Amino acid sequence: MILGVWDGHDAGAAVIDGNEIKVAVNEERLTRRKLDVGFPKESIKCCLEYLNLKPENIDTVAACTSDFSKTLTRVFPSMKDKYYLLRRRKSYPKFARWQKDLKYKLTEIGPSYPTRKVSERYLKKELKRLGFRNYRLEIKDHHMAHAAGAGFCSGFDKSLVVTVDGVGDGLSGSVNIFDRGKIERISSISSKHSLGIFFEHVTNLLGMRELEDEGKVMALSDFAYPIPDGENLMMDFFEVRGMNLKAKYSSVRMWKELRKILWHNSPEQFAWMAQESLKRKMVELFSNALKETGMKNVAWSGGVASNIKANMEIRNLPEVDRWFVFPHMGDGGLALGAALLMNFEKNGTWQYKFDNIYFGPDYKEEEMESELKKTPGVKYEYEKNIEGKVAELVSGGKIVFLYQGRMEFGPRALGNRSILASSSSLESKNDLNLKIKKRVWYQPFCPSVLEEDCKDIFEDYDYIERFMTMGFMVKKEFRDKMASVINVDGSARPQMVTNENGRYRKILENVKKETGLGAVLNTSLNLHGYPIVNSPKDVVEVMIKTKTPYMAMGNYFVELV
Fold first, then answer.
1. pTM, rounded to two decimals
2. Which domains, and CATH codes, for the chain?
Protein backbone atom coordinates (compact mmCIF):
# COMPACT_ATOMS: atom_id res chain seq x y z
CA MET A 1 0.00 0.00 0.00
CA ILE A 2 1.12 3.54 -0.76
CA LEU A 3 0.59 6.47 1.60
CA GLY A 4 0.60 9.96 0.10
CA VAL A 5 1.48 12.85 2.40
CA TRP A 6 1.32 16.63 1.99
CA ASP A 7 2.46 18.82 4.89
CA GLY A 8 1.93 22.33 3.50
CA HIS A 9 -1.08 24.55 2.86
CA ASP A 10 -4.25 22.40 3.16
CA ALA A 11 -2.28 19.42 4.44
CA GLY A 12 -3.59 15.91 3.99
CA ALA A 13 -3.02 12.22 3.34
CA ALA A 14 -4.23 9.48 1.00
CA VAL A 15 -3.85 5.70 0.66
CA ILE A 16 -3.77 3.78 -2.62
CA ASP A 17 -3.87 0.00 -3.00
CA GLY A 18 -3.55 -1.42 -6.51
CA ASN A 19 -5.77 0.65 -8.79
CA GLU A 20 -8.05 1.83 -5.99
CA ILE A 21 -8.01 5.12 -4.13
CA LYS A 22 -8.92 3.74 -0.73
CA VAL A 23 -9.14 6.90 1.34
CA ALA A 24 -8.11 10.55 1.15
CA VAL A 25 -8.71 13.29 3.70
CA ASN A 26 -7.39 16.73 4.60
CA GLU A 27 -6.21 17.83 8.00
CA GLU A 28 -8.71 20.68 8.26
CA ARG A 29 -11.66 18.27 8.50
CA LEU A 30 -10.16 16.64 11.58
CA THR A 31 -8.55 19.58 13.40
CA ARG A 32 -11.39 21.97 12.42
CA ARG A 33 -8.80 24.59 11.31
CA LYS A 34 -9.69 25.55 7.76
CA LEU A 35 -6.90 24.85 5.27
CA ASP A 36 -4.67 23.66 8.08
CA VAL A 37 -0.90 23.58 7.58
CA GLY A 38 1.82 21.32 8.94
CA PHE A 39 2.52 17.62 9.12
CA PRO A 40 -0.84 15.81 8.65
CA LYS A 41 -0.66 13.41 11.57
CA GLU A 42 -4.44 13.38 12.10
CA SER A 43 -5.06 12.69 8.42
CA ILE A 44 -2.58 9.80 8.45
CA LYS A 45 -4.18 8.34 11.58
CA CYS A 46 -7.64 8.72 10.02
CA CYS A 47 -6.59 6.92 6.83
CA LEU A 48 -5.05 4.04 8.76
CA GLU A 49 -7.98 3.72 11.17
CA TYR A 50 -10.55 3.80 8.37
CA LEU A 51 -8.77 0.94 6.59
CA ASN A 52 -7.98 -0.89 9.84
CA LEU A 53 -4.27 -0.68 9.08
CA LYS A 54 -1.15 -0.21 11.15
CA PRO A 55 1.92 1.79 10.07
CA GLU A 56 3.78 -1.43 9.27
CA ASN A 57 1.18 -2.22 6.57
CA ILE A 58 2.46 0.76 4.57
CA ASP A 59 5.53 -0.08 2.51
CA THR A 60 5.81 3.15 0.51
CA VAL A 61 5.33 6.81 1.39
CA ALA A 62 5.16 9.52 -1.27
CA ALA A 63 5.55 13.13 -0.14
CA CYS A 64 5.99 16.21 -2.28
CA THR A 65 7.83 19.52 -2.63
CA SER A 66 11.36 20.16 -1.39
CA ASP A 67 12.04 23.74 -2.43
CA PHE A 68 13.91 26.16 -0.18
CA SER A 69 10.85 27.86 1.32
CA LYS A 70 9.03 24.60 2.08
CA THR A 71 12.14 23.11 3.62
CA LEU A 72 12.65 26.22 5.76
CA THR A 73 9.15 25.90 7.23
CA ARG A 74 9.81 22.23 7.96
CA VAL A 75 12.90 23.16 9.95
CA PHE A 76 11.13 26.12 11.60
CA PRO A 77 7.42 25.15 11.78
CA SER A 78 6.55 28.28 13.75
CA MET A 79 7.03 30.25 10.52
CA LYS A 80 4.18 28.47 8.77
CA ASP A 81 1.98 28.67 11.87
CA LYS A 82 2.47 32.43 12.11
CA TYR A 83 1.75 32.91 8.42
CA TYR A 84 -1.33 30.68 8.69
CA LEU A 85 -2.81 32.84 11.47
CA LEU A 86 -1.95 36.02 9.59
CA ARG A 87 -3.33 34.81 6.25
CA ARG A 88 -6.59 33.70 7.86
CA ARG A 89 -6.87 37.06 9.67
CA LYS A 90 -6.58 35.40 13.08
CA SER A 91 -3.69 37.66 14.06
CA TYR A 92 -2.71 41.23 13.19
CA PRO A 93 0.47 41.86 11.15
CA LYS A 94 3.40 43.07 13.21
CA PHE A 95 6.00 43.08 10.45
CA ALA A 96 7.18 45.53 7.85
CA ARG A 97 6.19 45.11 4.20
CA TRP A 98 9.76 44.08 3.36
CA GLN A 99 9.28 40.88 5.33
CA LYS A 100 6.38 39.79 3.14
CA ASP A 101 8.36 40.79 0.06
CA LEU A 102 11.16 38.54 1.31
CA LYS A 103 8.68 35.70 1.68
CA TYR A 104 7.72 35.97 -1.99
CA LYS A 105 11.37 36.02 -3.03
CA LEU A 106 12.19 32.94 -0.96
CA THR A 107 9.32 30.95 -2.46
CA GLU A 108 10.87 31.41 -5.91
CA ILE A 109 13.97 29.39 -4.97
CA GLY A 110 13.71 25.86 -6.29
CA PRO A 111 14.83 22.57 -4.71
CA SER A 112 18.42 21.43 -4.35
CA TYR A 113 20.27 18.41 -3.01
CA PRO A 114 20.57 19.94 0.52
CA THR A 115 16.88 20.94 0.69
CA ARG A 116 15.79 17.49 -0.47
CA LYS A 117 17.93 15.81 2.19
CA VAL A 118 16.73 18.12 4.97
CA SER A 119 13.09 17.63 3.93
CA GLU A 120 13.56 13.86 3.81
CA ARG A 121 15.05 13.82 7.30
CA TYR A 122 12.17 15.92 8.65
CA LEU A 123 9.51 13.69 7.10
CA LYS A 124 11.15 10.51 8.38
CA LYS A 125 11.30 11.95 11.88
CA GLU A 126 7.58 12.81 11.84
CA LEU A 127 6.64 9.41 10.40
CA LYS A 128 8.72 7.66 13.04
CA ARG A 129 6.69 9.40 15.74
CA LEU A 130 3.60 7.74 14.28
CA GLY A 131 5.21 4.31 14.32
CA PHE A 132 6.35 3.97 10.72
CA ARG A 133 9.28 1.62 10.13
CA ASN A 134 10.81 -0.18 7.14
CA TYR A 135 9.19 1.82 4.37
CA ARG A 136 10.43 3.55 1.23
CA LEU A 137 10.11 7.35 1.19
CA GLU A 138 10.25 9.49 -1.93
CA ILE A 139 9.63 13.21 -2.33
CA LYS A 140 7.95 14.04 -5.63
CA ASP A 141 8.06 17.26 -7.60
CA HIS A 142 5.23 19.69 -6.77
CA HIS A 143 3.93 20.19 -10.30
CA MET A 144 4.41 16.54 -11.26
CA ALA A 145 2.11 15.67 -8.33
CA HIS A 146 -0.47 18.17 -9.62
CA ALA A 147 -0.11 16.72 -13.13
CA ALA A 148 -0.47 13.15 -11.83
CA GLY A 149 -3.77 13.96 -10.14
CA ALA A 150 -5.13 15.39 -13.39
CA GLY A 151 -3.70 12.76 -15.73
CA PHE A 152 -4.32 9.56 -13.80
CA CYS A 153 -7.88 10.47 -12.77
CA SER A 154 -8.99 11.90 -16.14
CA GLY A 155 -9.90 8.58 -17.76
CA PHE A 156 -7.89 9.62 -20.85
CA ASP A 157 -5.30 7.32 -22.39
CA LYS A 158 -3.49 10.32 -23.79
CA SER A 159 -3.95 14.03 -23.12
CA LEU A 160 -2.45 17.42 -22.62
CA VAL A 161 -1.93 18.04 -18.89
CA VAL A 162 -1.47 21.61 -17.67
CA THR A 163 -0.72 22.80 -14.14
CA VAL A 164 -0.87 26.43 -13.00
CA ASP A 165 -0.71 27.64 -9.40
CA GLY A 166 1.13 30.10 -7.18
CA VAL A 167 4.50 28.45 -6.70
CA GLY A 168 6.03 25.07 -5.90
CA ASP A 169 9.52 23.63 -6.41
CA GLY A 170 10.62 26.70 -8.34
CA LEU A 171 7.74 26.64 -10.82
CA SER A 172 4.31 28.24 -11.15
CA GLY A 173 3.14 25.96 -13.93
CA SER A 174 3.89 23.27 -16.47
CA VAL A 175 2.67 21.83 -19.75
CA ASN A 176 2.90 18.06 -20.11
CA ILE A 177 2.02 15.16 -22.37
CA PHE A 178 0.26 12.32 -20.57
CA ASP A 179 0.48 8.99 -22.38
CA ARG A 180 -0.77 5.85 -20.57
CA GLY A 181 0.75 6.92 -17.26
CA LYS A 182 3.92 8.51 -18.55
CA ILE A 183 4.09 12.26 -17.94
CA GLU A 184 6.52 14.15 -20.18
CA ARG A 185 7.06 17.79 -19.27
CA ILE A 186 7.39 19.93 -22.39
CA SER A 187 7.25 23.38 -20.81
CA SER A 188 8.11 24.75 -17.36
CA ILE A 189 6.77 28.10 -16.19
CA SER A 190 9.10 29.75 -13.69
CA SER A 191 7.91 30.77 -10.24
CA LYS A 192 9.02 34.31 -11.17
CA HIS A 193 6.19 34.49 -13.73
CA SER A 194 3.25 33.32 -11.65
CA LEU A 195 -0.38 33.95 -12.56
CA GLY A 196 -1.27 32.40 -9.22
CA ILE A 197 0.79 34.96 -7.28
CA PHE A 198 -0.74 37.72 -9.43
CA PHE A 199 -4.27 36.65 -8.42
CA GLU A 200 -3.12 36.16 -4.83
CA HIS A 201 -1.94 39.80 -4.76
CA VAL A 202 -5.28 40.95 -6.17
CA THR A 203 -7.16 38.97 -3.52
CA ASN A 204 -5.03 40.41 -0.72
CA LEU A 205 -5.32 44.00 -1.96
CA LEU A 206 -9.11 43.68 -2.03
CA GLY A 207 -9.00 42.93 1.71
CA MET A 208 -9.64 39.22 1.24
CA ARG A 209 -7.69 36.14 2.38
CA GLU A 210 -5.15 34.96 -0.17
CA LEU A 211 -5.14 31.23 -0.95
CA GLU A 212 -8.78 31.13 0.13
CA ASP A 213 -10.94 33.93 -1.28
CA GLU A 214 -9.86 33.98 -4.93
CA GLY A 215 -13.32 32.71 -5.86
CA LYS A 216 -14.81 35.87 -4.36
CA VAL A 217 -12.66 37.98 -6.67
CA MET A 218 -14.02 36.04 -9.65
CA ALA A 219 -17.60 36.54 -8.39
CA LEU A 220 -17.11 40.25 -7.70
CA SER A 221 -15.75 40.81 -11.21
CA ASP A 222 -19.19 40.10 -12.71
CA PHE A 223 -20.54 43.30 -11.17
CA ALA A 224 -18.16 45.60 -13.07
CA TYR A 225 -18.45 47.29 -16.45
CA PRO A 226 -16.46 45.53 -19.16
CA ILE A 227 -13.79 47.69 -20.74
CA PRO A 228 -11.65 47.30 -23.89
CA ASP A 229 -8.33 45.47 -23.57
CA GLY A 230 -6.48 48.73 -24.22
CA GLU A 231 -8.00 50.23 -21.06
CA ASN A 232 -7.32 47.16 -18.90
CA LEU A 233 -4.25 48.22 -16.95
CA MET A 234 -3.40 44.61 -16.05
CA MET A 235 -3.60 43.08 -19.52
CA ASP A 236 0.12 43.59 -20.15
CA PHE A 237 1.23 42.21 -16.77
CA PHE A 238 1.84 38.87 -18.52
CA GLU A 239 2.90 37.90 -22.01
CA VAL A 240 2.20 34.42 -23.38
CA ARG A 241 5.17 33.10 -25.34
CA GLY A 242 4.21 29.84 -26.96
CA MET A 243 3.68 27.44 -24.05
CA ASN A 244 5.23 29.74 -21.47
CA LEU A 245 4.49 32.92 -19.54
CA LYS A 246 6.58 36.01 -18.98
CA ALA A 247 5.69 38.50 -16.23
CA LYS A 248 6.28 42.20 -16.79
CA TYR A 249 7.16 42.75 -13.12
CA SER A 250 8.73 40.82 -10.28
CA SER A 251 6.32 39.52 -7.64
CA VAL A 252 7.25 42.40 -5.32
CA ARG A 253 6.96 45.09 -7.97
CA MET A 254 3.70 43.56 -9.22
CA TRP A 255 2.08 44.09 -5.82
CA LYS A 256 3.08 47.77 -5.86
CA GLU A 257 1.76 48.30 -9.39
CA LEU A 258 -1.52 46.61 -8.52
CA ARG A 259 -1.92 48.79 -5.46
CA LYS A 260 -1.66 51.89 -7.69
CA ILE A 261 -4.35 50.55 -10.01
CA LEU A 262 -6.69 49.80 -7.12
CA TRP A 263 -6.28 53.35 -5.83
CA HIS A 264 -7.85 54.69 -9.02
CA ASN A 265 -10.57 52.06 -9.48
CA SER A 266 -13.54 50.55 -7.67
CA PRO A 267 -13.08 47.07 -6.15
CA GLU A 268 -15.44 45.63 -8.78
CA GLN A 269 -13.49 47.14 -11.66
CA PHE A 270 -10.19 46.04 -10.12
CA ALA A 271 -11.50 42.48 -9.80
CA TRP A 272 -12.80 42.54 -13.39
CA MET A 273 -9.47 43.65 -14.82
CA ALA A 274 -7.66 40.89 -12.91
CA GLN A 275 -10.17 38.19 -13.85
CA GLU A 276 -10.25 39.17 -17.51
CA SER A 277 -6.44 39.31 -17.69
CA LEU A 278 -6.04 35.90 -16.08
CA LYS A 279 -8.74 34.38 -18.29
CA ARG A 280 -7.29 35.76 -21.52
CA LYS A 281 -3.75 34.64 -20.72
CA MET A 282 -4.90 31.15 -19.76
CA VAL A 283 -6.95 30.80 -22.95
CA GLU A 284 -3.94 31.87 -25.01
CA LEU A 285 -1.59 29.49 -23.18
CA PHE A 286 -3.94 26.51 -23.64
CA SER A 287 -4.67 27.38 -27.26
CA ASN A 288 -0.96 27.50 -28.08
CA ALA A 289 -0.30 24.21 -26.29
CA LEU A 290 -3.18 22.44 -28.04
CA LYS A 291 -2.09 23.64 -31.48
CA GLU A 292 1.57 22.83 -30.90
CA THR A 293 0.96 19.32 -29.54
CA GLY A 294 -2.05 18.39 -31.65
CA MET A 295 -3.81 17.13 -28.51
CA LYS A 296 -7.60 17.16 -28.22
CA ASN A 297 -8.09 15.96 -24.65
CA VAL A 298 -7.17 18.28 -21.78
CA ALA A 299 -6.66 17.61 -18.07
CA TRP A 300 -5.48 20.22 -15.66
CA SER A 301 -4.81 21.05 -12.03
CA GLY A 302 -3.21 23.59 -9.69
CA GLY A 303 -4.90 26.38 -7.76
CA VAL A 304 -5.71 28.47 -10.85
CA ALA A 305 -7.78 25.53 -12.15
CA SER A 306 -10.46 26.52 -9.61
CA ASN A 307 -11.30 29.54 -11.79
CA ILE A 308 -14.45 28.21 -13.46
CA LYS A 309 -14.86 31.21 -15.77
CA ALA A 310 -11.42 30.64 -17.27
CA ASN A 311 -12.20 26.92 -17.46
CA MET A 312 -15.39 27.63 -19.38
CA GLU A 313 -13.56 29.76 -21.97
CA ILE A 314 -10.83 27.14 -22.44
CA ARG A 315 -13.31 24.27 -22.71
CA ASN A 316 -15.07 26.05 -25.56
CA LEU A 317 -11.91 26.36 -27.64
CA PRO A 318 -12.44 24.61 -31.00
CA GLU A 319 -9.30 22.53 -30.41
CA VAL A 320 -10.72 20.86 -27.28
CA ASP A 321 -12.53 17.55 -27.53
CA ARG A 322 -12.73 16.16 -23.95
CA TRP A 323 -12.01 18.01 -20.72
CA PHE A 324 -11.17 17.14 -17.09
CA VAL A 325 -10.27 19.22 -14.04
CA PHE A 326 -8.85 17.38 -11.05
CA PRO A 327 -11.51 18.14 -8.40
CA HIS A 328 -9.05 18.84 -5.57
CA MET A 329 -7.03 21.10 -7.81
CA GLY A 330 -5.23 23.14 -5.13
CA ASP A 331 -2.42 22.00 -2.87
CA GLY A 332 -4.88 19.94 -0.85
CA GLY A 333 -4.78 17.39 -3.66
CA LEU A 334 -1.00 16.94 -3.61
CA ALA A 335 -0.97 13.96 -1.22
CA LEU A 336 -3.13 11.94 -3.60
CA GLY A 337 -1.21 13.21 -6.63
CA ALA A 338 2.12 12.15 -5.12
CA ALA A 339 0.72 8.69 -4.29
CA LEU A 340 -0.65 8.26 -7.83
CA LEU A 341 2.72 9.19 -9.29
CA MET A 342 4.49 6.76 -6.96
CA ASN A 343 2.06 3.97 -7.81
CA PHE A 344 2.82 4.27 -11.52
CA GLU A 345 6.57 4.36 -10.99
CA LYS A 346 6.47 1.38 -8.64
CA ASN A 347 3.69 -0.77 -10.10
CA GLY A 348 2.87 0.64 -13.54
CA THR A 349 -0.71 1.43 -12.47
CA TRP A 350 -2.30 4.34 -14.32
CA GLN A 351 -6.03 3.61 -14.71
CA TYR A 352 -8.48 4.35 -11.89
CA LYS A 353 -12.25 4.40 -11.61
CA PHE A 354 -13.01 8.02 -10.80
CA ASP A 355 -16.76 8.60 -11.00
CA ASN A 356 -17.00 9.91 -7.44
CA ILE A 357 -14.75 11.44 -4.79
CA TYR A 358 -16.37 10.14 -1.61
CA PHE A 359 -12.94 9.20 -0.25
CA GLY A 360 -13.26 10.41 3.35
CA PRO A 361 -14.46 8.59 6.47
CA ASP A 362 -18.07 7.73 7.21
CA TYR A 363 -19.96 7.00 10.42
CA LYS A 364 -22.39 4.26 11.39
CA GLU A 365 -25.99 5.10 12.22
CA GLU A 366 -25.34 3.98 15.81
CA GLU A 367 -22.72 6.73 16.08
CA MET A 368 -25.16 9.24 14.62
CA GLU A 369 -27.90 8.22 17.05
CA SER A 370 -25.48 8.32 19.97
CA GLU A 371 -24.65 11.93 19.17
CA LEU A 372 -28.32 12.86 18.76
CA LYS A 373 -29.29 11.23 22.05
CA LYS A 374 -26.91 13.40 24.05
CA THR A 375 -27.82 16.65 22.24
CA PRO A 376 -30.48 18.74 23.98
CA GLY A 377 -32.93 20.67 21.84
CA VAL A 378 -33.36 18.13 19.02
CA LYS A 379 -35.81 15.36 18.28
CA TYR A 380 -35.33 12.63 15.71
CA GLU A 381 -37.02 9.60 14.20
CA TYR A 382 -36.03 6.87 11.81
CA GLU A 383 -37.48 7.69 8.39
CA LYS A 384 -37.61 4.95 5.73
CA ASN A 385 -38.36 7.42 2.94
CA ILE A 386 -35.84 10.07 3.97
CA GLU A 387 -35.34 11.05 0.30
CA GLY A 388 -39.02 11.94 -0.11
CA LYS A 389 -39.07 13.88 3.16
CA VAL A 390 -36.05 16.00 2.17
CA ALA A 391 -37.42 16.63 -1.33
CA GLU A 392 -40.80 17.73 0.05
CA LEU A 393 -39.19 20.25 2.41
CA VAL A 394 -36.75 21.64 -0.17
CA SER A 395 -39.48 21.95 -2.80
CA GLY A 396 -41.57 23.81 -0.22
CA GLY A 397 -38.87 26.44 0.28
CA LYS A 398 -37.22 24.98 3.39
CA ILE A 399 -33.47 24.62 4.03
CA VAL A 400 -32.29 21.11 4.94
CA PHE A 401 -28.93 19.76 6.09
CA LEU A 402 -27.96 16.50 4.36
CA TYR A 403 -25.40 14.35 6.18
CA GLN A 404 -24.71 10.82 4.95
CA GLY A 405 -22.05 8.37 3.78
CA ARG A 406 -18.38 9.05 3.19
CA MET A 407 -17.12 12.62 3.31
CA GLU A 408 -16.20 14.29 0.03
CA PHE A 409 -12.55 14.82 -0.94
CA GLY A 410 -11.84 18.39 -2.01
CA PRO A 411 -13.49 21.77 -1.54
CA ARG A 412 -16.98 20.91 -2.84
CA ALA A 413 -19.84 19.18 -1.05
CA LEU A 414 -21.47 16.73 -3.46
CA GLY A 415 -24.49 15.42 -1.57
CA ASN A 416 -22.93 13.82 1.52
CA ARG A 417 -22.01 16.94 3.51
CA SER A 418 -24.43 19.39 1.90
CA ILE A 419 -26.97 22.08 2.67
CA LEU A 420 -29.94 21.90 0.29
CA ALA A 421 -32.48 24.51 -0.72
CA SER A 422 -34.78 25.31 -3.64
CA SER A 423 -33.09 26.14 -6.94
CA SER A 424 -35.73 28.78 -7.67
CA SER A 425 -36.44 30.45 -4.31
CA LEU A 426 -34.56 33.70 -3.76
CA GLU A 427 -36.06 33.85 -0.27
CA SER A 428 -34.43 30.51 0.62
CA LYS A 429 -31.16 31.69 -0.91
CA ASN A 430 -31.19 34.89 1.15
CA ASP A 431 -32.08 33.04 4.36
CA LEU A 432 -29.25 30.61 3.70
CA ASN A 433 -26.80 33.42 3.12
CA LEU A 434 -27.84 35.68 5.98
CA LYS A 435 -28.65 33.16 8.70
CA ILE A 436 -26.37 30.15 8.02
CA LYS A 437 -23.50 30.68 5.59
CA LYS A 438 -23.03 34.43 6.20
CA ARG A 439 -21.10 34.94 2.98
CA VAL A 440 -20.62 38.11 0.93
CA TRP A 441 -23.75 39.03 -0.99
CA TYR A 442 -22.23 38.73 -4.46
CA GLN A 443 -20.95 35.16 -4.10
CA PRO A 444 -23.35 32.80 -5.89
CA PHE A 445 -24.54 29.37 -4.79
CA CYS A 446 -24.36 26.33 -7.05
CA PRO A 447 -26.82 23.67 -8.22
CA SER A 448 -26.94 19.90 -8.23
CA VAL A 449 -28.86 18.75 -11.29
CA LEU A 450 -29.98 15.36 -12.60
CA GLU A 451 -27.71 14.68 -15.56
CA GLU A 452 -30.64 13.92 -17.86
CA ASP A 453 -32.03 17.43 -17.24
CA CYS A 454 -28.77 19.20 -18.07
CA LYS A 455 -29.26 19.28 -21.84
CA ASP A 456 -32.51 21.20 -21.27
CA ILE A 457 -31.07 23.64 -18.70
CA PHE A 458 -27.61 24.52 -20.02
CA GLU A 459 -26.80 26.19 -23.32
CA ASP A 460 -23.37 24.63 -23.63
CA TYR A 461 -23.90 21.19 -22.09
CA ASP A 462 -21.37 18.86 -23.73
CA TYR A 463 -20.11 16.50 -21.00
CA ILE A 464 -20.97 15.23 -17.51
CA GLU A 465 -19.41 17.49 -14.86
CA ARG A 466 -19.68 15.59 -11.58
CA PHE A 467 -17.40 17.70 -9.40
CA MET A 468 -18.43 21.39 -9.73
CA THR A 469 -15.24 22.45 -11.52
CA MET A 470 -16.76 24.10 -14.59
CA GLY A 471 -19.03 27.00 -15.50
CA PHE A 472 -22.02 26.52 -17.82
CA MET A 473 -24.52 29.06 -19.13
CA VAL A 474 -28.16 28.57 -18.09
CA LYS A 475 -30.72 29.00 -20.86
CA LYS A 476 -32.83 32.12 -20.45
CA GLU A 477 -36.07 30.16 -20.23
CA PHE A 478 -34.72 28.28 -17.18
CA ARG A 479 -33.25 31.20 -15.25
CA ASP A 480 -36.38 31.73 -13.12
CA LYS A 481 -36.34 28.06 -12.10
CA MET A 482 -32.60 28.36 -11.35
CA ALA A 483 -32.75 31.84 -9.80
CA SER A 484 -31.02 30.92 -6.53
CA VAL A 485 -28.10 29.07 -8.18
CA ILE A 486 -26.97 31.32 -11.03
CA ASN A 487 -24.58 34.21 -11.18
CA VAL A 488 -25.62 37.65 -12.39
CA ASP A 489 -24.40 36.79 -15.89
CA GLY A 490 -26.54 33.64 -16.10
CA SER A 491 -23.72 31.19 -15.47
CA ALA A 492 -23.72 28.35 -12.95
CA ARG A 493 -21.25 25.80 -11.60
CA PRO A 494 -23.27 22.57 -11.52
CA GLN A 495 -22.82 19.12 -10.09
CA MET A 496 -24.36 16.78 -12.65
CA VAL A 497 -25.70 13.75 -10.80
CA THR A 498 -25.78 10.31 -12.43
CA ASN A 499 -25.73 7.10 -10.35
CA GLU A 500 -22.69 7.71 -8.17
CA ASN A 501 -24.77 8.63 -5.11
CA GLY A 502 -28.01 6.64 -4.89
CA ARG A 503 -29.70 8.49 -2.05
CA TYR A 504 -28.84 11.91 -3.39
CA ARG A 505 -30.14 10.97 -6.81
CA LYS A 506 -33.43 9.82 -5.26
CA ILE A 507 -33.78 13.20 -3.53
CA LEU A 508 -33.37 14.97 -6.89
CA GLU A 509 -35.82 12.59 -8.55
CA ASN A 510 -38.37 13.37 -5.84
CA VAL A 511 -37.74 17.11 -6.26
CA LYS A 512 -38.43 16.68 -9.97
CA LYS A 513 -41.76 15.04 -9.17
CA GLU A 514 -42.64 18.01 -6.94
CA THR A 515 -41.39 20.85 -9.17
CA GLY A 516 -40.86 19.46 -12.65
CA LEU A 517 -37.10 20.02 -12.51
CA GLY A 518 -34.43 17.79 -10.95
CA ALA A 519 -32.34 20.59 -9.46
CA VAL A 520 -31.53 21.95 -6.00
CA LEU A 521 -29.27 24.53 -4.47
CA ASN A 522 -26.34 22.62 -2.96
CA THR A 523 -23.70 24.29 -0.80
CA SER A 524 -21.16 22.87 1.61
CA LEU A 525 -22.31 22.00 5.12
CA ASN A 526 -20.23 24.36 7.22
CA LEU A 527 -20.14 27.84 8.61
CA HIS A 528 -18.39 30.26 6.29
CA GLY A 529 -14.68 30.34 7.10
CA TYR A 530 -14.75 26.89 8.71
CA PRO A 531 -14.13 23.45 7.17
CA ILE A 532 -16.88 21.21 5.85
CA VAL A 533 -18.22 19.03 8.67
CA ASN A 534 -16.79 15.55 9.17
CA SER A 535 -18.28 13.80 12.19
CA PRO A 536 -21.85 13.63 13.57
CA LYS A 537 -20.68 15.88 16.39
CA ASP A 538 -19.53 18.51 13.87
CA VAL A 539 -22.83 18.62 12.00
CA VAL A 540 -25.02 18.68 15.13
CA GLU A 541 -22.99 21.61 16.45
CA VAL A 542 -23.57 23.55 13.20
CA MET A 543 -27.30 22.75 13.29
CA ILE A 544 -27.62 24.06 16.85
CA LYS A 545 -25.44 27.12 16.24
CA THR A 546 -27.31 28.19 13.08
CA LYS A 547 -30.76 27.20 14.43
CA THR A 548 -31.44 25.29 11.21
CA PRO A 549 -34.68 23.38 11.87
CA TYR A 550 -34.29 20.34 9.60
CA MET A 551 -31.63 17.74 8.94
CA ALA A 552 -31.43 14.32 7.28
CA MET A 553 -28.68 12.39 9.07
CA GLY A 554 -28.42 9.00 7.44
CA ASN A 555 -31.96 7.66 7.80
CA TYR A 556 -32.71 9.87 10.80
CA PHE A 557 -34.90 12.91 10.28
CA VAL A 558 -33.80 15.50 12.84
CA GLU A 559 -35.68 18.62 13.96
CA LEU A 560 -34.99 21.38 16.44
CA VAL A 561 -37.47 21.66 19.29
1. 0.97
2. 2-154+332-347 (3.30.420.40), 162-325 (3.30.420.40), 365-560 (3.90.870.20)
